[in-house]
Specification:
The protein has five helices and 17 strands. The chain is of the alpha/beta class. The protein has one domain: Purple Acid Phosphatase, chain A, domain 2, CATH 3.60.21. The strands form two sheets. Strands 1, 9, 10, 11, 12, 13, 14, 15, 16 and 17 form a ten-stranded mixed beta sheet that branches. The protein has a seven-stranded mixed beta sheet with strand order 2-3-4-5-6-7-8, with helices on one face.
């Protein structure tokens, strides 16, 4: 476990977006890009980047466009330039597998090193990447605690927890059709982040996996174009029959 220094006395950028999320007494900003901004700490969280997922599938004969890592890094870089965080936490499954660093093009590796050199960068260990590549900079941790919040990859239901792994998505009825969006899921005491990776799938927040984390129900914060939409549990639609399990 790694404890992070607190920059509460540093200048704090104002949130860019109107949607706010309160967790364990702290004000957080869920961003339309899928990141989580903690303005009081100048801390940015991204989750489940799954870098080099496309090349992993290609090695198995399933052809996907080889642009997922570049597209995902574009998003992370834009957030870092806009928000200027002191600390960045990549909340596990940053790389799709342990061999991802071997497939990583030099240009992408250089971009990652630039990010880790410019910030206090922490790679939280995930189930896909229990040993994040040391040569890309930053530091690794199984989990981190700061103030009332704890950051880990797989949710355990602890109060103040910010986790990833489940790739939450929300489905609602739109204008004549159903709309499915990546989302944050929270009950005010704990939070599950959306996956940011370009090729990552998603698990509906009405799946049984979320009931174990949010036994009293949840609110979905769905990612839209330039805005995050707050969706109550009563407006959400399911995807698959109960009992069907997705592999994340």
């Amino acid at each position: 476990m790694t404890a992070l220094p607190s920059p509460r006395n540093a200048p704090k950028p104002e949130p860019r977006h109107e949607t706010l999320l309160h967790l364990a007494g702290e004000m957080l900003v869920p961003l339309p890009e899928g990141g989580l901004w903690w303005p009081a700490e100048r801390l940015l969280v991204v989750s489940d980047l799954h870098l080099e997922k496309g090349s992993a599938y290609a090695a198995k004969g399933q052809m996907l466009p080889p642009y997922d890592t570049g597209a995902t890094l574009d998003v992370v870089e834009r957030l870092c330039v806009t928000l200027m965080p002191t600390t960045v936490i990549s909340l596990g499954d940053s790389f799709h597998d342990r061999a991802a660093e071997l497939r990583l093009p030099v240009t992408y590796a250089d971009r990652i090193r630039a990010l880790t050199a410019a910030h206090d960068w922490i790679w939280v260990e995930g189930n896909h990447d229990p040993d994040p590549p040391a040569h890309l900079g930053g530091r690794a941790a199984k989990l981190l605690r700061r103030g009332p919040l704890v950051f880990r990859h797989e949710p355990e239901g602890e109060a103040g927890e910010v986790a990833g792994h489940l790739h939450p998505v929300a489905k609602v009825r739109g204008r004549g059709r159903n709309v499915r969006r990546r989302c944050f899921a929270s009950d005010g005491a704990r939070l599950v982040m959306p996956a940011m990776g370009a090729f990552t799938g998603g698990l509906n927040v009405l799946d049984e996996a979320f009931e174990r984390v949010f036994p009293e129900g949840l609110t979905a914060f769905a990612l839209g174009e330039g805005k995050v939409f707050v969706l109550s549990g009563g407006s959400l639609l399911g995807d698959v029959p109960r009992g069907v399990q997705w592999k994340l």
